[in-house]
Every structure is written in C-alpha cells, then in structure tokens.
Amino acid sequence: MGLAAQGWLRNAWYVADWADAITDALTPLEILGERVVLYCAGDGHPVALEDACPHRKLPLSLGRREGDTLICGYHGLAFDSAGTCVAAPTQAALPKAGVKAYPLAERYGLVWIWMGDPAAADPAKIIAIPQWGSPDWGYNRGPMMQVDCHYLYVVDNLLDPTHVTWVHPGSFGDASCAAVPIETTARTDGVTAARWLADTPPAPFYAKFLKFKGNADRYQHYEVRYPSNAVIKAVFVPAGAGGPGVDGDQTSHPDAFCMDSFNFLTPVNARQTRYFWFQLRNFAPDDAAVSEEFTQDVKHAFEEDRVILNAVQIGMDTSPTPTIDLKNDLASFRFRQTLARMIAAEG
C-alpha cells in the first residue's frame, strides 16, 4: 500500500499555525486533505471551520465576515463560530445544515487543531515540553516551511541521524557521523534513534557555542512521537565525559551544550507538508543575537533538507524501479508499522 492510500491519524493534535499569524482575515488551509478556514474571533480566540458551504461547497473563505459570522459569497448562508447556520436569506426557514467546527488549543505559541472526533480532543494530549518557559533556556523559532512531499518522508529524515553527514556537511554533520551504530527504541508514543559519537571534532554549527576546546563526545537523539511531532536533541560534552552507556541527559554537566529542536509536521495532502519548528538551548537565555544566529543557521540547514525531500517525492512518484532499505531505515520502519496500525484502528 502506498503512503497516499494509508491515510492519516485523525484523532491527534496538529499545528494549524503560529498563534500570532492568525488574524481577523479568513485564511484558507488544507490539513489532512480537508479544507479549513481559520480566523481570529472578536474575543481574540482562534476559530477553525470547514471551508465549504453545505449548499454548493463554495469555500467560506471566499465570503466575508460580519462580526464572528461567516457569510457565504454565493447565496448568503451565514454560519456562526460553532459552524451553525444562523441565516439563509433566500429561504423561509433555516436549512438543517451546518459546517464542521474543529477544536483548537494554544500551546507553545502555536495553535493546534484536532482533526478527529471532537469529543476526544483533550489538550493534555499535546506534546509536553518540560523546559518550556524556563528562565534558564534560550528560545528561537523560524518561519513555517512548506515541503513538497508526503509527511512520512519528512519523518524518515527526522528519524535518521546518519543523513547529516551528507546533507549538512557544513553545519550539523561531519565525516565522523557516518558509520557509528544507531540504537533504535520503540515506545507506545513514538520511536527514537540515538547514538553517542565519541571523541569527535564538533560539527561547525555547534563549535562556536561550546564552552570548551578540543574534541567532544556528541549525543544525537532523533525522536518522533505519533503521528508527526519530532524532538531532536544535540548534546556536546568534553571528550571522555559522554559516550556509549552514558545517559544523553547532560544538562547538569557544567560545560554541556544542549539544544532541543522541536519539529511539528502538519500533513497538507499526500504531497505537501507544513513544517513548524523552534529550538530551546541551555545557555544565553536572554541573548537575542544568539537566538537570531540559531534561527538563521537552522533555517539554512532545513532548506538543505527541503531540497532533498522535494526531490525524494518526485523520485518516488516517477521512478519505475523498486526501492531498497538500509540499516538506518529501522527506526522509520518501526514508526510506520505502528502508525499504520493506529490509523487502521480508527476505521
């Protein structure tokens, strides 16, 4: 079964947009192949409705607002922020119809949308980030990035530490990353691929921020939670302080560099993904210049990923020959297996 035929996990929270990007304007989005219109209500809370009038399916985003009510631009049917039809100028009585309203929640400066059963939309199910808001951790974020490929190809990338050697040689990667074995761990909430790189020169992106000189022990932690939230941890300590068998949590080490990258994938359709991201770091919490440098460097590296992933989708769509698997595909293979079962269980 191809990725497009597998479908999506609907009973899950996905990022709709940055909270500060949602305005009074009617903004059309496609999420999991469904058309959604997003806007900020008069009380400041975001609203998400099905972007299709039930009469002839004209997008409501092509209509207009009257307060918090959306007016269809075809025959004037009006819908409140709960999706209820509240006016039908051409009819003597209101039609027994409405549009779907999607549950929303705000967390981490993002607005999350629930695409499945509204009764199951518990905000407690949004990924937990313990260090969020801590005065000891710096923060930076980048713009939403659209990737023209199926989101599971992006998941493949986010569960593969080995790709940094070839895709990011001038930033995240170096030759020492190539052949070190990866430990894959499957849990109920996701899959992790991790490894220690012992006594290695720090990669260029990180070297300028380290508190120590010389080689380092580097921990790579690539984790994706179902269905599409990734936590990438980069840890550097002086050579000899880390290594295989040592816990990757080194926040208590006085010279440790720790950067946690949070990456949220929102499937648009079978060939497009919206990618939201930010980083938290264990130093320079109030340094705006460091935050901006992080943002620009990470943005550059993610652009390198986008070039690869866009080309992967084209290759998968057009190449007539079979694909092969490598050892570094184990984590994504396990992820896809469990996710497929979860999707099938939704019926």
Layout: helices, strands, pairs:
Layout: H1 3-6, E1 13-18, E2 27-31, E3 34-40, E4 46-50, E5 64-66, E6 69-71, E7 78-79, E8 85-87, E9 104-107, E10 110-114, E11 138-141, E12 145-147, H2 151-158, H3 164-167, E13 183-186, E14 190-200, H4 204-207, E15 216-225, E16 229-238, E17 257-269, E18 272-281, H5 288-318, H6 330-345
Antiparallel strand pairs: 1-10, 2-3, 3-4, 5-6, 6-7, 7-8, 9-10, 11-18, 12-18, 13-14, 14-15, 15-16, 16-17, 17-18
Description:
With 347 residues, this protein is of the alpha+beta class. It has 2 domains: 122 residues, Rieske [2Fe-2S] iron-sulphur domain (Rieske Iron-sulfur Protein, 3-layer Sandwich), CATH 2.102.10.10; 216 residues, Naphthalene 1,2-dioxygenase Alpha Subunit, Chain A, domain 1 (Alpha-Beta Complex). It is built from 6 helices and 18 strands. Strands 11, 12, 13, 14, 15, 16, 17 and 18 form an 8-stranded antiparallel sheet that branches. The chain has a 4-stranded antiparallel sheet with strand order 5-6-7-8, with no helix packed on it. A 3-stranded antiparallel sheet has the order 1-10-9, with no helix packed on it. Strand 2 and strand 3 form a beta hairpin. It starts with a helix and ends with a helix.
